[in-house]
Structures are given as C-alpha cells and as structure tokens.
Amino acid sequence: MNLALIGCGALGARRAEELRALGAAVVRLVHCADRDLGRARAAARPHESCSADTDWRAPLARRDVEAVIVATPHDTLAEIARAAIAAGKHVLVEKPAARRAGELRGLAALAAERGIRVRVGFNHRHHRAFRQARTLVDSGELGTLMFVRARYGHGGRPGYEREWRAQPERSGGGELIDQGVHLIDLARWFLGELTQVHGFVHTYYWDMPVEDNAFLLLKTDAQQTAFLHASCTEWKNTFSFELYGKGGKLQIDGLGGSYGTERLTWYRMRPEMGPPDTRTWEYPMADDSWQVELREFCADIEQARDPSPGLRDAIAALEIVERVYATAPGA
User: What angle do CA 110, 172, 29 make, to 5 degrees?
Assistant: First the structure.
C-alpha cells in the first residue's frame, strides 16, 4: 500500500520512523507534506523515492496514494481528514481527530458512502500491556467490571506555554484534550459508554489560557465509574491505569521511556479473599504499539472492516471533553 504522511512534526516524524521499521513489504511511504519543507524532507529522506512538499493537498491529488496519515495540530485534523476521504483515500488520523465533536459530523457517512476506512490514533489500546489486559477481560477472568482509576501526566518543558498546545484556537483545550482523551478512550473501551460526566479543570502552574490539570468522574448507566486525572504538572512522567472487577484487579504502569517500564499486574481474588494471587508481565522492549496500529489500519482496508477505534470513538471522547469544558468550575 502506498501511503502519504501529512504533518511531519515530532509525532509525524515518529510515524515516518515506524513506517520504515514496518517495511515496504507492508506499506510504502511515498509522500511527506508539512508547512516546514525541511521537516517534510527529513521525514521523507530515509524512504526510497519519497517526495516532500509544503502543500498537504498535493498527496491527495496523487492517484498512486491509497491512504494518508494525518499528524497535524488539532485545528487541521478534521479538515484534512475530510478532504482525504473526499479524495478517496483511507485515513489514519491522530487523536483527538478534531478540536470539537462537531468538526467530525458527517465524516462517517461520507466515508461509508465512498468505501473509505478511517482509524483514529488512540494507539495506547495497542500497547502490549493493554493487549494482554483486553485478553484477560474478554476471557471473563476479571468478572463484572466495577470501576477504573487512572493517571496520566508529564511535566512539560521550557517554553511549553508558548507551544501550539497552549493556544486554544489551535488545540481546542489543554491537558484534557491532549493526554486526557487517551484515558477517556481506554475507560470507554473497557466500561462502555460513559453517559454521566463530571469534571474539573484548572491551570495551576503554566502561564497559558488552557488547563494544565483535569480531574474527571465518569459513569456508565450501570454506575460503573472512571476516575481520571490528566496533568502537565506531573514532575515525574506517570502512567497508571487500574481496572477493577469482582474477580480481581488489573494494574498497568508505565509506557516505556520516561514513563518507566511498561508492566501489567493481575491481582486475582481468592475464594477466601485475603491477599490475592499475583502475576506480573513486564515489557522492557521497545514500544510496538505504533507498528501494531499500522498493521491494524492495513487490515481495516484489506478486510473492509470498521476500524476500532474509529470516528465514533473520537466523537464520544470529544463529547465528554466538551461537557467538562462547558460545565466544570474553573473552565
């Protein structure tokens, strides 16, 4: 499959690296576009016969391009995805896929009309620990699920308050729409639709017009609860996701790199209760979630299947974000 990359910043550059590692036998990167031509050329350079351009519309006009990855700032994700669908290209669009749910309205219908597959880049679902957790939950080992407790955060960097993520007209919001949507998506993936939304956002540290901390309490109709905290005042990068069932608990810590070794621990309740049986899986190897996600995207296209996560998941996560922004004290 011939693929184009639109947006070659830090995330787009990572995508280009993962495509190279995946290999031309699976997918071939043939075009890179970025408003900064130097970044486009840098992403294209390791890929044989890959062209570089400053116009994101150029790869959409190429008949040999079958699919695109959209890795731009939030304010152009939906616009470019819509144009790509209209041009007949399959799309992998980075999370959150838009600044607001309304920007995605009609995209699913347009994609269905044209036979186009649209996957949204909630790549955390594809981390090794989460793949194993999904297997355990689906096996029934955890029993009826009760609640999720999760934290995700980083400490920013010098000048963070001047980056595009701190500009609400480009980002759509702060830490909630940046890292918080990953937590929302993962909570929905396990618990189902989160119909009751309560939250609080605040800017404690960074001098910027968007929040640096978000605290959420979300519930399903069955009162299963997700208690989530996303922060960019987390001075030691942190990822923790705990999933509680009536038969025990799954705990995922770390994502590799600065977040620490990825680890899944299964605390299995005994009939007599007391200290649980414990089993731990550690994943010190390189994160393969990006390549797994790309393979899944290829499978979506080859098998003509509905991508998961897809546009519906992005809209649901963004609707929760919007409800928090609209009603939260401190918003």
Answer: 55
pLDDT at 26: 86
Q: Are 56 and 69 in contact (CB under 8 A)?
A: no
pLDDT tens-place string over residues 202-249 = 999 999 999 999 999 999 999 999 999 999 999 999 999 999 999 999
Q: Residues 156, 93, 259, 189: what is their CA dihedral angle, to the nearest 10 degrees? A: 120
For residue 174, give both structure tokens: 């702060």
Q: Report which of 213, 256, 236 is spatially closest to residue 154, judged by C-alpha positions.
A: 236
Torsion angle, alpha carbons of 31, 34, 37, 40, to 10: -50
Report yes or no: 123 and 290 within 8 Å, Cβ to Cβ. yes
pLDDT at 38 over 50: yes
Whether omega for the bond prior to residue 96 falls within 30 degrees of 0, making it cis, is yes
> Which residues lie closer than 8 Å to 178 by C-beta, 6 or more apart?
165, 171, 230, 232
Q: Dihedrals φ, ψ of 242, to 5°?
A: -115, 130
Read off the pLDDT band of 328 (50, 70, 90). low
**CA atoms of 82 and 89, how far apart (whole Å):** 10
Cis (ω within 30 of 0) for the bond into 309? yes
Per-chain mean pLDDT for the chain: 96
**Residue from 92, 109, 98 nearest 22 by CA:** 92
Q: Which regions of the chain does DSSP assign to beta strands (E)? A: 2-6, 28-33, 51-53, 67-70, 90-94, 118-121, 145-153, 196-202, 213-219, 225-231, 238-245, 248-253, 262-268, 277-283
Count CA atoms closer than 13 A to 228's CA, side-chain side: 30
Structure-token pair, residue 5: 């990359």
